[in-house]
Design a protein that fits this description.
Elements: E1 9-15, H1 22-30, E2 37-43, H2 50-55, E3 61-64, H3 70-80, E4 85-88, E5 93-95, H4 100-111, E6 115-123, E7 131-135, E8 156-159, H5 160-166, H6 177-188, E9 193-204, H7 212-230, H8 232-249
Parallel strand pairs: 1-2, 1-4, 2-3, 6-9
Antiparallel strand pairs: 4-8, 5-9, 6-7, 6-8
């Protein structure tokens, strides 16, 4: 799987009625110092002017058709991608600076890893200069995912060979397909990864990942099912970790 890099990075952007935010996404990709980038926007038949905005950017591949959710859109983009490094950048996210992709490609070359990831910051939806929360991912250890940890998805980069060998996002996990994919690749199949200790991606609050209390409960339920899918031991480790955190919060 560690074949010689062809130096092309495919960035997949799933979109739906994203006219208010997608320009930031497109600008952050087109402004990268690294230029061997293929940007693919997979649109779920937006009814606003998302398409018109994308068409302003030369070379961006735009595909608009019905899909079965955001992870189905990601899968379509990955299967169309021709780069050997794949990134997912949602239509309300953007890269932290113009050297992110250059840094990611250099990391793949130097480490020979199959995946890499970095940190992420959450910002206010209407004021992206205002940081709400830092998410510092930290270095990966073998049992971290089964205890509920996983790399921030918009700051996670994968060789296309990983998708081809181990499969794409399982759309049955509509709110936890990213978690299931990382559990499957990093934990179950021990795909190699490396950590870039810098902020790579900026995410607006109020997007797909901010689903309220009910959404979070559904997400936890789907993560539990993913853990059981591979090993009941993973599930019990996950639950014990959740219980431990709850117990610590209730201590006087």
């Amino acid at each position: 799987m560690r074949e010689k890099l062809n130096n092309k990075v495919s960035i997949i952007t799933p979109a739906y009625n994203s006219a208010s935010t997608i320009r930031d996404t497109l600008d952050s990709v087109s402004g990268q110092t690294y230029k061997n980038i293929e940007h693919i926007v997979i649109d779920n038949e937006s009814s606003d002017n998302t398409e018109e905005i994308v068409e302003e950017y030369e070379g961006v591949i735009f595909l608009s058709e019905p899909d079965n959710g955001i992870f189905d859109g990601m899968n379509k983009g990955i299967k169309r991608a021709t780069g050997d490094i794949v990134a997912i950048l949602n239509s309300d996210d953007f890269y932290a600076n113009n050297k992110v992709i250059e840094k990611v490609v250099r990391t793949f070359k130097e480490t020979k890893a199959d995946t890499c990831y970095g940190n992420l910051v959450y910002v206010e939806r209407e004021n992206t200069d205002k940081i709400v929360r830092h998410l510092e991912a930290g270095r990966y250890k073998k049992n971290k995912i089964e205890h509920g940890w996983f790399p921030p998805h918009p700051a996670f980069f994968v060789r296309s060979a990983v998708y081809k060998k181990y499969g794409y996002y399982d759309t049955k996990f509509s709110m936890a397909a990213d978690f299931e994919f990382m559990l499957r690749t990093l934990r179950v199949f021990s795909v190699s990864t490396t950590y870039i200790p810098e902020t790579l991606t900026v995410m607006r609050t109020g997007g797909y990942s901010d689903r309220g209390v009910l959404g979070r409960l559904v997400g936890i339920s789907q993560k539990s099912k993913a853990l059981i899918k591979y090993d009941y031991k993973f599930f019990w480790n996950f639950m014990l970790n959740k219980f431990s955190k709850l117990k610590n919060l209730t201590k006087i």
